[in-house]
Write a structure and sequence with these properties.
By secondary structure, this protein is α+β, with helices and mostly antiparallel strands. The protein has two domains: 172 residues, 3-Layer(bba) Sandwich (FAD/NAD(P)-binding domain); 143 residues, D-Amino Acid Oxidase, Chain A, domain 2 (2-Layer Sandwich). 25% of the residues lie in helices and 29% in strands. The chain contains nine helices and 20 strands. The strands form three sheets. Strands 5, 6, 7, 13, 14, 15, 16, 17 and 18 form a nine-stranded mixed beta sheet that branches. Strands 1, 2, 9, 10, 11, 12, 19 and 20 form an eight-stranded mixed beta sheet that branches. It starts with 11 loop residues before the first strand and ends in a 13-residue tail after the last helix. Bound molecules: flavin-adenine dinucleotide (FAD).
C-alpha cells in the first residue's frame, strides 16, 4: 500500500471498493458509517479518469427514460448541498426533426420532467446567431452545472470521516475467493475482504476478469470536449444547447467562451484517453452549422471514456453468480448526476440503512447485474 493511508490497511475488512472516481467515492460516503471500507485507486489521484473530465452538467433527460429516475431523485440532494448552479438546456433540432422533439416532449412530460416546447423566436432570444434551420426545441429549465470537484471531494471527505481509508497508486492486480472471502492482491500487499465492489469505470470488465468473474460487457467510448474562444460576444450563461439526436452540445463557459463536444462515441480500450484532432475539427464544423459565431481559438481540449453496459443502463448490485462480488459500473455519460442515488441505493444493499425520501423510493431492480443472466 502506498499513499493516502493513515496507517496500514487492516488485514481483513468488510468492503473493498476498487476505483475512487465518483462511483467509488459516492458509495464509500454512504457505506463507511456502517461497514469497514477501504477504497483503492490505481492512479496517484482519485478522479483522474472519467470523473475529472466531465462536462459537469445535470440534465434530467440525459441518458434516456431508463436513467432519468436516478437523475431526478439526485437533484434535490445536489441542490440542497450547493453543488448546482443554474444553466437551463435547449434540446434543439432542425425543422425537419420536429417529430423527434414531439416524441421527446411526450416521453419526458409523461415521466414528470418539466419540458416546454420553444418557438423559433424563443430559441433565437436564448441563442443569438442561431441559423434558420434550427427552429425546433424543447426547453428544460432545471438543467444545472455541477461543481464536480467539490462533489467528489465531499464524498471522499465524508467517507474518510466515517473511517474509510483511501489508498492511491494501489491497483487491484488479482483476487482469489478463499474460505468465503477474497484475498486481494493490491500492489505488493494482500487485503482480505468479505466483498469486492467493482467501481473501476472503463476498467470494470478488466477488474472482474482479474477476480475470475465473468464480464457484463462494459464498453468504454471516447468523448471529446473543447473549450473554444469565440470572435463575438456570447453570454457566459448560454444554456446547454444539445442536439436531440446526439450530434453535438455546447454551453457557455465564460464571456465569449463555450465548451463544445461533437458528441463522439468512439469505442476504446480502457486507457488515459486523449482528444483526436479530427473530433475537435468535427465539433467546430458542427457548431458552425448551428450558429454564425466565428471561432477565434481552441483554448483547451480533452477526452474521457464513458463506459456503457449493452443496454446503456447503469449496473449496480450483487453479481448473480459470484458471491461477494458487486458491480457499480456502466454510468455512461450520467455518472456524476446520478451519483447521489446510485451511491445510496448500492450502500443499502451492502449494509447501510435504506435511503430516505425520493431516492429510497427507487426500485433498483432494473439496474441489477442479474439482468444479464
Ligand atoms: C467528456 C465527458 C463528459 C461527461 N459529462 C458528464 C456530465 O456532464 N454529467 C454527468 O453526470 N456525467 C458526465 N460524464 C460521465 C461521468 O464522467 C462518468 O459517468 C463518471 O465519471 C464515471 O465515474 P466512475 O467512478 O465510474 O469512473 P472513473 O472516474 O473513471 O473512476 C474509475 C477509477 O477506477 C480506477 N481503476 C481502474 N482499474 C483499477 C484497478 N485495477 N485498481 C484500482 N483502481 C482502478 C481508475 O484509475 C479510475 O480512477 C462525462 C464523461 C465524459 C468522458
Amino acid at each position: 500500500m502506498r499513499r493516502g493511508m493513515t496507517g496500514r490497511a487492516p488485514s481483513s475488512i468488510d468492503v473493498l471498493i476498487v476505483g475512487a472516481g465518483i462511483a467509488g467515492a459516492s458509495l464509500a460516503a454512504s457505506l463507511a458509517p456502517w461497514r469497514q471500507v477501504v477504497l483503492i485507486e490505481a492512479e496517484d489521484m482519485p478522479g483522474y479518469h472519467a470523473t475529472g473530465r466531465s462536462a459537469a452538467f445535470w440534465h434530467e433527460s440525459y441518458g434516456g427514460p431508463g436513467v432519468q429516475p436516478l437523475s431526478s431523485v439526485s437533484f434535490a440532494w445536489l441542490s440542497e448541498q450547493g453543488f448546482l448552479s443554474p444553466r437551463a438546456a435547449i434540446n434543439i433540432a432542425r425543422r425537419g426533426e420536429a417529430a423527434r422533439v414531439d416524441a421527446f416532449m411526450a416521453a419526458f412530460t409523461a415521466r414528470g420532467v418539466a419540458v416546454e416546447r420553444m418557438t423559433q423566436d424563443e430559441i433565437a432570444a436564448r441563442v443569438p446567431g442561431i441559423r434558420a434551420p434550427w427552429s425546433e426545441a424543447a426547453y428544460e429549465g432545471a438543467c444545472s452545472d455541477i461543481d464536480v470537484g467539490a462533489l467528489h471531494a465531499v464524498y471522499l471527505g465524508a467517507a474518510k470521516r466515517a473511517g474509510a481509508r483511501l489508498v492511491t497508486r494501489a491497483p487491484l492486480s488479482a483476487a482469489r475467493r478463499v474460505a468465503g472471502a477474497w484475498d486481494v492482491s493490491v500492489g505488493g500487499d494482500t487485503i482480505r475482504a468479505a466483498t469486492i465492489v467493482n467501481a473501476a469505470g472503463a476498467w470494470a470488465d478488466a477488474v472482474a476478469a482479474r477476480c475470475g468473474v465473468a464480464s457484463v460487457g462494459i464498453q468504454p467510448y471516447r468523448r471529446t470536449v473543447a473549450q473554444v474562444r469565440l470572435g463575438c460576444p456570447v453570454p457566459a450563461d448560454l444554456p446547454l444547447v444539445i442536439h436531440i439526436g446526439g450530434e453535438f452540445y455546447f454551453k457557455g463557459e465564460s464571456e465569449g467562451r463555450i465548451w463544445l463536444s461533437p458528441h463522439d462515441e468512439t469505442p476504446s480500450a480502457p486507457c488515459d484517453a486523449a482528444p483526436d484532432e479530427m473530433d475537435v475539427a468535427l465539433a467546430i464544423d458542427r457548431l458552425q452549422s448551428v450558429v454564425d459565431w466565428p471561432v477565434a481559438a481552441v483554448e483547451r481540449k480533452w477526452a474521457g471514456l464513458r463506459s456503457f453496459a449493452p443496454d446503456r443502463l447503469p449496473v449496480f448490485g450483487a453479481d448473480p453468480r459470484q458471491p461477494g462480488f458487486v458491480w457499480c459500473a456502466g454510468q455512461g455519460g450520467f455518472g456524476i448526476q446520478t451519483s447521489p442515488a446510485i451511491g445510496a441505493l448500492l450502500a443499502a444493499q451492502l449494509g447501510a440503512p435504506p435511503p430516505e425520501g425520493a431516492i429510497g423510493a427507487i426500485d433498483p431492480a432494473p439496474y441489477a447485474p442479474s439482468r444479464f443472466g
